[in-house]
Every structure is written in structure tokens, then in C-alpha cells.
């Protein structure tokens, strides 16, 4: 498997982790960074959830394509 597939898999995992952490504990941004950019409206947290979910799906599909390509090339 190529390095690209490994990088996409790691990126999918990290984005998935960010998605889950933000979904379960939405105030982590305020706790970690000490700022409240959306003044407790929750808009930033839902934006992070949506972007992380899209990134997770995108990286997962890209990694899947790399794994399939590597498997196809190895069986030839």
C-alpha cells in the first residue's frame, strides 16, 4: 500500500475522533483554548461537527480507493 493511503486513513481517524469528541463534549473548544468565539450559541461546535463528519467521509472514501487500487495491483 502506498503512503498516500496510510495518510488518508490516519486523517480519517483523526477527523472521526474530532467529530466524536465535539459531538459528545461540545464545550471542549472553550475549555482547551479559553475563548468562546460564538458566545455560547453552539454555532461553532455544530460547524466543527459538520466539517469533521464531511472530512471523515471524504478521507475514508479516498483511503478505500487506495486500498482497492493496491489490492487490484497486487493480484495482477
From TrEMBL:
Keywords: Membrane, Transmembrane, Transmembrane helix. The chain crosses the membrane at residues 7-26, 46-63. This is ABC transporter permease. It comes from Streptomyces antnestii. The lineage of its organism: Bacteria, Bacillati, Actinomycetota, Actinomycetes, Kitasatosporales.
Amino acid at each position: 500500500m502506498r503512503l498516500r493511503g496510510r495518510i488518508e486513513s490516519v486523517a480519517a481517524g483523526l477527523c472521526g475522533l474530532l467529530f466524536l469528541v465535539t459531538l459528545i463534549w461540545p464545550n471542549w473548544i472553550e475549555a482547551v483554548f479559553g475563548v468562546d468565539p460564538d458566545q455560547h450559541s453552539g454555532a461553532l461546535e455544530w460547524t466543527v461537527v459538520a466539517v469533521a463528519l464531511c472530512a471523515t467521509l471524504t478521507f475514508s472514501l479516498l483511503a478505500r480507493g487506495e486500498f482497492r487500487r493496491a489490492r487490484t495491483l497486487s493480484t495482477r
